[in-house]
Give the backbone structure.
Amino acid sequence: MPSLSILLVALQAATSQSPRLAALKQEAVRDVAGRVQFTQQMVDQIFSFAELGFQETETSRYLIDLLKKNGFTVREGVAGIPTAWVATWGSGKPVISLGSDIDDIPQASQKPGVACHAPMIEGAPGHGEGHNSGQAVNITAALAVKKVMEREHLPGTLQIWPGVAEELVGTKAYFVRDGLFKDVDIVIFSHVDDNLATSWGDVAGNGLVSVLFSFQGRSAHAAGAPWRGRSALDAVELMDIGWNYRREHLRLQQRSHYVIPNGGDQPNVVPPTASVWYYLRELDYPHIMEMFALADTIAKAAAMMTSTTELPPRILGSAWPGHFNRVIAQDMYENIKQIGLPEWTDADQRLAKALQRELGVPDSGLAIKLDTLRPALKPNERTGGGSDDIGDVSWNVPTVTLRFPSNIPGLPGHNWANAISMATPIAHKGATAGAKVMAMTILDFLMRPELVTQAWDYFRTVQTKDIKYQPLIRPQDRPAIELNRDVMAKFRPEMRRFYYDPTKYRTYLEQLGITYPTERAADGSCGGGATP
Ligand SMILES: [Zn+2]
């Protein structure tokens, strides 16, 4: 006699094959396909704004207006962050939350569609990570699903939010602390990649704490009375030397790096203040906190050696290592298989291969084979790497990241090269493919409540069985909203001349007068396109 659980499984299988759901998903996919121009305009518009973390004022204004125009209610200034917002539409359960980052990379300005280093503005920021594309994926999908929900009277709430200052891992822990995900059932995050993919379990990368160590010394004439000065810069340098020696004796999984945002004013004044900014990365919360404590000990020792004072370390950002939900990932991967990779043209492949040759990596071109849904990583397969503060969200709500193919394989990351495809047909088609998968997955979770239950079951009984979330940010920490203000103020006036105007030009490439693709010229020069 079949047990109740077997009957339930059979019932679920029957629901999963509901012809009504299948038909609505196909309809949403067709709807997304009909919105290619809308998607392309969002990708191009945000590319042209090219704003650094915490300064995404044009990007957020544009997205807020667009969402309001499409019936969403928007709360601005979320968690005390001027460029953060949360948009909602619909009512009741489930609440499905869609996020994607919007900030860009310092000194990554680059003409799109040109397969060599050609800055639009020398030294200016640019989308050398591809964060101009994710909101287009989420919003296109949400509007297609909203249309179906309205007609079919489906209950449920769609929530959309931006990953502000992701490059500074600066906001998502504050979103969590502010209660943004309190009533959320699942989170689907989207991020640019060079394939259409998702994963579950622990991520390969690290979590981190981003800390500013500052020292207070005493100024004096650096030549006239150096013995009366106490150099805060000396403390910074000795801290860095101490850390670099100690690094040899840290676990192989750690990553740590620093910049010196304040190294003094001018050589003839003994620096009375100086600061060094560290990213301290490890695989889990206890190891991250251990690194933080060690760095603080080294800072204190450096202060003692120089007779300066260590000021209270300031946390500028943080990220838990991500862990993604098996149930959502498995459902999403079924949808990924149905959509498949975009059809690349010869022009797309020529751009990709020319750039790969330019960088001296194998010229394999764009992905033509889907990634597999790899099984969860075993502990010894986690060797450390980058971080994303979606990790904090993933330990509070069942979460996955949908990776979509808007970029070129083999690139260094956080570099001008990663901006090249991001306002071209590669990015546009990748975003549309992502939006199709996103729309299908949202509909699955809207119409099959048992999937939400299963996702939470995995979250409670597997993911958080032994590990409980503790924020890396302390109660006194506040978002570092002043970061990047000066750099954006310096470049924005010049950048405005390059903002995309979709009322005049079909695409941003057309506005810039760039032939697609442009390769390095026969004489070795790299250029392409007229400047407006
Ligand atoms: Zn990113």
User: Anything to note?
Assistant: Residues 105 and 125 are 6 Å apart (CA to CA). The pocket of zinc ion is lined by residues 101, 129, 131, 166, 191 (CB under 6 Å). The two ends are 76 Å apart (CA to CA). The mean pLDDT is 95.
